[in-house]
Amino acid sequence: MRIGLTVGESLDRIDALADRFAFVELGIAETAPDVDRERVAAALEAADVDLCVHLPFKQVVSTPVPAMNDAIVSHKRTLLEWAGRMGAEKAVLHGTVRDPYDTGQRDTFATQLNRIVTAGQDAGVEVVVENVGHQKNGMQLSVLGDIAEEVNAPICFDVGHAYMEEGHDGIKRFLKYHGEQVSHLHVHDVRRRGDTHLPIGAGEIDYDLVGESLGGFDGTVAVEVFCDDRPLLEDTASRIARTFGKPFVASGLDASTTEQ
Question: Most exposed of 69, 111, 231, 245 (fewest Cβ within 10 Å)?
Fold first, then answer.
């Protein structure tokens, strides 16, 4: 299990905060190919971290319009090719659709997801679809899991998003039926009143449920806490490592051995 840090689109956060982590998850803009590749590469090298990316999310993945769907896939392919050239390991994709309650569009979403995952494979990047069912255009949690399994798409399971949508029962149910598809985790704490992306321990989520449901998890874990306080970020990393029975490893946080 490797623990990394989400940094949004900020290269400065890589410079300031990433050196204790195994990788960064960099948010890329819709115009990512225009980003200074040398600046990105220099920041990664200085911090000695690997790269994952988060694809832009303002545009949904699936609409009822075939020509728009083709354009969405084409654009995602361009971004994934850029990510591949930068050496990105994974790319996070929000599981969104024009109208998530239109059951007739679920097959279209499945096709779109499969096309984007395939584009990632062609670029050497693993596309992981993220649950955002608590948002207006987010595909419902259980439906997303079923579709991801149908097209064999790896999942980015955002624990906080799942809690906001369906509480602890939703977390347990999803991981019971779809845990084997989870390749990437987003970890942060939340409160049902609307506070999100808090350090673990500051909110309401029982992370022991995640550890119990994903025993032996050997994927990537991204700390998605929206602050620049190094001790809080590292405490969240330490807490999630302990949840899986792993030690806190200060250099790289590569929790690879069982805690004694």
Answer: 231
